[in-house]
Design a protein that fits this description.
The protein is α/β, with parallel strands linked by helices and 400 residues long. Helix 8 links the parallel strand 17 and strand 18. Helix 6 runs antiparallel to helix 7 and helix 8 packs across helix 12. The protein binds MU-OXO-diiron (FEO). MU-OXO-diiron binds next to helix 2.
Length: 400
């Protein structure tokens, strides 16, 4: 049975929700599911903007059939070819034999790599090209690396709708609520939106900045992303988040403490640090056990906070493996502009602090505080004093 929503008078959401998938891209947990958004425009020509993951194909095809109501499909605009949006292209082409695909050269190359039979069905466009579908005239804007190289966004010049591809998306199924003003985004969605952005697009901040600059030159009335709610109000809220995330600027002054503890002594040490910080007036603190927290969550929180404390036990004379994985992910996603405090622990040869600092040296503009803490098995009077100095160092660096 079809399940669609009207977006504007002649535009319909024909996507689907997926609550069965455990791991997005087979990496990132999505306990709230995810939506694959696709939009169908009924003008003099009928135009489908992007498709959905194959897992949602049946629902999607029923939705298209319902909205078309016997009309043929004229065009399929593909803004992004990653299979969570492109996997159903070939089935759409089979069912609607007159439909032509409008997309970029690179997207067509990818379609052929995925062995889609698109011969004779393509209309290649480039930045600034336009197409008229009747009342609606659209222009295409390239958006390379947001989040694949072939990506573009499509702007409807007639009504200000921006088909934004992966930009402005979020994890989370829609559960009937399509628009940002139908949900409490800041309460219920922002954490998933941050985790989506930082882990999926986070590496490509400069490319997102380039897209934001282009977006600033057009009069956007509605943003239709490929995942999550459609935005039709309060753009400033989300644009500000995107601007900060893509410039690698923290959203909040606060301390993210990520610790690796085998028997509880490192955990005990960071509990004391957190108490000291709160006593000294900094209570915006988040603490995570690196062994129990998915790295996608740690990455999202890393983008959020201004200060990070890394506390790691030494393991095989190295950094505790889950902490090392977190650092590798941080570097891969281009995390920068953070102030970091280091706590190393070990019973006979604590090395993790030196090694974490060396790792951070290989990243962009990460400031490591001089106040470091070495814990030999468990905190003692000397390391407690170092901890107090680290707490003071964190707070002073916030006031710089
Ligand atoms: Fe939602 Fe880059 O695909």
């Amino acid at each position: 049975m079809y399940c669609v929503r009207k977006v504007t008078e002649d535009l319909y959401w024909v996507g689907a929700n997926d609550r069965r998938l455990a791991l997005f891209e087979n990496i990132h947990p999505i306990p709230r599911g995810v939506s694959y958004n696709s939009y169908l425009l009924l003008d003099e020509k009928t135009v489908l903007f992007d498709t959905v993951d194959w897992s949602a194909g049946r629902q999607f095809l029923e939705n298209i059939q319902h909205v078309l109501d016997g009309r043929k499909l004229d065009y399929l605009v593909i803004n992004h070819m990653e299979p969570d949006h492109g996997a159903s292209i070939e089935e759409v082409l089979l069912r609607y034999p007159e439909a032509k695909i409008i997309s970029t050269e690179k997207a067509f190359m990818l379609m052929r790599q995925f062995h889609f039979n698109i011969d004779g069905r393509t209309e290649q466009v480039e930045e600034g090209d336009t197409r008229s579908f009747g009342k609606h005239k659209v222009t295409f804007v390239s958006a390379p690396m947001v989040h694949w190289p072939e990506a573009m966004v499509t702007y409807d010049m007639t009504n200000g709708v921006l088909f934004a591809a992966d930009a402005f998306g979020s994890f989370g199924s829609l559960d009937g609520k399509l628009f940002n003003d139908e949900v409490n985004f800041d309460r219920d969605w922002i954490d998933d939106a941050r985790r989506y952005y930082t882990n999926i697009v986070g590496k490509y901040g400069p490319h997102v900045q380039a897209l934001l600059k282009k977006a600033a030159t057009i009069d956007i009335k509605m943003i239709c992303p490929l995942h999550g709610p459609v935005w039709r109000s309060d753009f400033g809220y989300f644009l500000d988040k995107y601007d900060k995330w893509s410039r690698y600027e923290p959203e909040e002054k606060g301390v993210l403490i990520v610790y690796a503890s085998m028997y509880g002594n490192t955990e005990s040490a960071v509990n004391i640090l957190a108490s000291m910080l709160a006593e000294k007036g900094m209570s915006n603190i988040a603490m995570y056990d690196v062994s129990k927290t998915h790295v996608s969550q740690l990455i999202a929180e890393t983008f959020r906070y201004s200060h990070i404390v890394l506390a790691s036990v030494t393991y095989n004379l190295g950094i505790y493996p889950p902490m090392h994985d977190y650092l590798v992910d941080m570097k891969a996603l281009n995390v920068q502009n953070r102030t970091v405090g280091i706590i190393e622990c070990g019973s006979w040869a604590p090395k993790s602090g030196t090694l974490m600092e060396e790792f951070l040296d290989g990243m962009k503009t990460m400031t490591v505080l001089n106040e470091k803490v070495t814990v030999l098995s468990s905190l003692n009077e000397s390391s407690l004093l170092e901890m107090e100095q680290l707490a003071d160092g964190l707070i002073e660096s916030m006031n710089d």
